[in-house]
Design goal:
Blueprint lengths: L1 E5 L3 H13 L3 E6 L2 H11 L3 E5 L9 H12 L4 E6 L4 H8 L6 E5 L6 H12 L3 E3 L1 H9 L12 H11 L4 H8 L3 H14 L10 H11 L1
Parallel strand pairs: 1-2, 1-3, 3-4, 4-5, 5-6
Helix pairs in contact: 2-3, 7-9, 7-10, 8-9
Amino acid sequence: MRVVVADDVLIVRAGLVGLLTDAGVAVSGQAADADGLLRLVALERPDVAIVDIRMPPTHTDEGLVAARVIRARYPHTAVLVLSQYLAPRYAQRLLEDKPGGLGYLLKERVSDLAILTDALQRVSSGECVVDPAIVTKLFERERRDSPLATLSQRERQTLGLMAEGRSNAAIAGQLGIVERSVESVCAQLFRKLGLQPDPDINRRVLAVLTLLRS
């Protein structure tokens, strides 16, 4: 896997590069701002771009905007956005249209190398990854007329873990059930959300999109 890293803080950027190198991930470039990131992606066409959400010149949402540009221009490059702040609205803006190949993690989470590499693998394969703290906030703000209202507690737990990018096997381990039971819960979850089987769509991604919009 080839990645590029964008963060305006040199020590953070160097730390990420060190973690990735230790994990055997090839870092093909670094950028300190959104414009540099876009030039780098155009040149290198990496598998994943790791992007800080707040970069120069305004330090508001430059990384978020750049992430959406990358996904539109270079669909084969996934994006993992990192944020210092717990802001569900940013996650929603990033993922609301086409969440496949996108991830949103808090910076404190990526110090765990296993979490970082797992997220990279998942977004590069077209999945969606949302930080667990963001998932909790999304469920807390759920509207009364939300399609999630019909879900059982186990189905809600499963959807939350799905949003975190967990595989069926990982969900089974987390919930203490067998993987076949997870498959059954997922099938029921998809039915309740009106997501019919279709070879051209990823129902897991669409289920997460429903959570983001609820």
